[in-house]
Amino acid sequence: MGESYRRVPPEPGAVPYAHRPMTPDTPPTRDMDRSLGDGGMPLLGELGVAFHGYGTGWAEAAWVPTALACNPGGIVQGGVYAVVHDAAMNFATNSALVRGDRCATLDVQYQTIRTATAGDALRVRGSVVRASKQVAYAASEVTTTAGDVVSRATATFILRRKETE
Asked: I want to staple 148 with a disulfide (CB 3.0 to 4.6 A). Which of 12, 24, 124, 144 is the partner?
């Protein structure tokens, strides 16, 4: 996993993410500290998700599913994975944009590979695979602390870039 960042200003003259390579040590292009914890969405906190790190084009969270995330059989309900993946990929995409630019989810596809239950210690990582001027492609994984994949997803985001003068 990459280094966790809180707030590291971009270098003077830095160009937007779509026009420069991303490496694990690339500092974020915008301050996303307010999204740490529940990602700015109380629902994520209720589901047991807590974002703890990000950099340009990636975001990481710890997830200990709560009973609210589970079906009556105690297994994490499938639709909850969609919410968690979308949040992780959205956070990652926003961390790759400059202040004032925005993104919106166009679609999300996810697969559940193994079950998880309330109280399991999980990790979530979302990352931008590619970004152009108007579209970004992202991926995310939910894994156990041992690294076993529980669920993975991909998504497409539309980018709304601020007007440049």
From this structure: 144
